[in-house]
Amino acid sequence: MSKYESLLRETPVLLSEQADLPDKIKGLYVETKAVQAILLSRSLRTSSEKACILAEELGHYYTSAGDITDQSTLVNRKQEKRARNWGFEKLIPLSELVRAYIGGCRNAFEIADFLEVTEEFLKESIFHYQEKYGQMIVLGRFTIYFDPLGVAEIFDTSKR
After folding, report:
1. SS3 of 56, please?
2. How far is CA 25 from CA 57, 58, 74, 93, in A?
3. Contact of 21 with 64, CB cutoff 8 Å
4. What are phi and psi of 141, to 5 degrees?
5. In degrees rounded to 5, what are phi and psi of residue 49?
6. Could you give the residue ranges of the DSSP H alpha helices within the chain?
7. Which positions fall inside the IrrE N-terminal-like domain (predicted)?
8. What residues contact residue 54 under an 8 Å CB cut-off, 6+ apart?
């Protein structure tokens, strides 16, 4: 099952995958008294694109309140960032970067393909993690470096 299909199963609101949205808008979370829905632009072509946009819109469902379309206000920009960060952590938890490394991926294109996300989404998620953790984080026996992106495995040589 693809990441997109998995997200579809988790989506707790109505979903339209063929919405006629303005060119710059790829997805939209709409909440009224009568309905909660996520609209995905019909211009999205790949499962990876759809997964990335759906993850962000689910982030709005779980973390945002009210109409935040006016991004000139700080409070709305903060809510937008919170929703995007939720989407990054949903689709690309740190353990997935390790899984991609174990799977033989060595560059952003290979990692994005392996994780079924777009390269842009991967790069933005790496920037998010760098803001959150700094240049690196240790996860078990792995060290994830964010700039440049890489994973190193630590071997215990004391057991020889």
Report:
1. helix
2. 11, 15, 20, 25
3. no
4. -90, 10
5. -60, -45
6. 3-10, 47-63, 74-91, 94-102, 108-115, 119-133
7. 35-124
8. 4, 7, 8, 11, 15, 27, 38, 40
Are the C-beta atoms of 138 and 153 separated by less than 8 Å?
Answer: no
Look at the block and give the residue holding tokens 């979903």. 15
The DSSP symbol for 104 reads T
pLDDT digits (tens, 9 = 90+) for 8-66: 999 999 999 999 999 899 999 998 888 899 999 999 999 999 999 999 999 999 998 87
This model's pTM is above 0.70: yes
The owner of tokens 């440049």 is: 148
Distance CA 11, CA 23 (A): 24
